Amino acid sequence: MIGIRLDSGIGSTASLLLLGSILLFFPSGTVSSGIVTLKSIQIFTTHGLLSRPIFSSYGLVTAPTVYFNCQGENKTNLPDVKKKNSLYTFKDEESWQPVTEFLNKKCKRCGFYEKNIIMSDGVFDEWEFCPSDFKASDGVYVRLKDKEVSATFYCPECVPRHGRDVVARNHTLRSDNGGTKGNRMRVTSVIFIAVLASNGFIIGVLYRYWLRKKSMQARSGRRHRLS
């Protein structure tokens, strides 16, 4: 009977490769980023000098130029927002979306502003915008400042872990058979890759052992001939 001794280095390498192949197929439980989009906005006033009613009789009234901005980031102009007291809704597909992105749990200083050429830009609202604001399981956060602005943001990846689990369960209940089949195929692929990797390492170790034995037999034969 032939005994094969596997050194700890080969065993450790095999374990790491198997673990890596499995992690490639399963999503991580840690959220690396959260993309934030604007679902709706309604302004209740204006701050621009030329957007004030006093200039209407002179024909100088212009539509407000509203934008969203987080400190240190580029401004996101909202070209559709032209009138106060009108609700504007969006589909997440607009060219200017998303409005920001959270790369970690740290908050940002963000706000809605109105561009003003003559004076400093007007402020509808400015606050510490945090991923933890998205407490609802559907990933929606509503920001309201009385007599200024109301806005709805969407960030499903910002929802706490338990909230995302609820959303995932609801989505699973609504999914069709095609989605179930897709999940089964994915699990099958993971199992196949894991088995293939294991067999590859075993074959490699056996081949290495065979080469050693063949080399030893060759050396032994040469010694016998010389003696």
TrEMBL record:
<feature type="transmembrane region" description="Helical">
    <location>
        <begin position="190"/>
        <end position="210"/>
    </location>
</feature>
<dbReference type="InterPro" id="IPR057713">
    <property type="entry name" value="DUF7953"/>
</dbReference>
<keyword id="KW-0812">Transmembrane</keyword>
<keyword id="KW-0472">Membrane</keyword>
<feature type="domain" description="DUF7953">
    <location>
        <begin position="34"/>
        <end position="156"/>
    </location>
</feature>
<dbReference type="Pfam" id="PF25829">
    <property type="entry name" value="DUF7953"/>
</dbReference>
<keyword id="KW-1133">Transmembrane helix</keyword>
<protein>
    <recommendedName>
        <fullName>DUF7953 domain-containing protein</fullName>
    </recommendedName>
</protein>
